[in-house]
Amino acid sequence: MAPPRRKNIFRVALPPPGTIYVRRGYNVVLAEEFAALKVKRAALVEDKIEAHSQGDLRENFGFKAAKDAIRAVDRKMDELDRFALRNTFIEVDPATWLTKPVDFLQLGHVARIEKEDADTKRKHRFTFLIATYGETASDPESGIECLPHNSPLAAVLLGLAVGQPAQVNLPAGPAILTVHSIRNPTQAELDRLLTAIKPPEIEGEEQ
Q1: Exposure pattern of 59-83 as b/e (b: 16+ CB <10 Å)?
Q2: Residue ranges per structural domain of the chain
């Protein structure tokens, strides 16, 4: 049996399959991104063929550049394909966030949160819109920050009620979280916070 290749030995394991909530239209954006990468790859292949026809490949920098660019696009296409295949995407309409019940914290709510570090006892206060995948905007006018629903912090906040401290383990260490208020966003806040839908930022892996 052949030994595993070096690039596989140290490769970070893929995250487990998950359910990712996205805004309506996200699946179309994914498909458009993949189609754009295919067009880009086809153009690079033409550049590679043209460069190949120019002679000695050992000193043909155009050929090498096109070859490297094709590999980079291939890696990004592979990663995008794996991202789409290993996850389930549920599209939601932010208009539903304007009238949600506020008994406990859900996707689409605005919440005032206090986080107390268990070790240092330092307290931090935030106002978050629990948003869909990939949302990271902030609103200077209201002080609200988008917190993607699948982030480690959102994962432990979702389902909490007002005034019930919860001891949690976060990547930065253990903490006590307290939800001080839950409300629905206003349309003006959503207009300022929700930016154009973008495909995931995928760098690809070095070969």
Answers
A1: ebeebeebbebbebbebbbebbeeb
A2: 17-92, 94-193
Residue-wise pLDDT for 59-81, tens only, equals 667 778 888 899 999 999 999 99
DSSP helix, strand, coil percent of the chain (3-state; round to 5): 40, 25, 35
Four-point Cα dihedral 32, 34, 38, 43, nearest 10: 70
CATH code for the structural domain at 94-193:
3.10.50.30
CB 163 within 8 A of CB 179: yes
DSSP 8-state assignment for residue 171: T
Q: Residue 158 in contact with residue 105, Cβ under 8 Å?
A: yes
Architecture per CATH, domain 17-92, reads as Orthogonal Bundle (1.10)
Give bridge partners of residue 96 from the DSSP assignment: none
Give the Å distances, CA to CA, from 86 to 8, 18, 20, 81, 151. Answer: 19, 7, 11, 9, 18
Q: pLDDT tens across 97-114, in order?
A: 999 999 999 999 999 999
Q: How far apart are CA 97 and CA 189, in angstroms?
A: 11
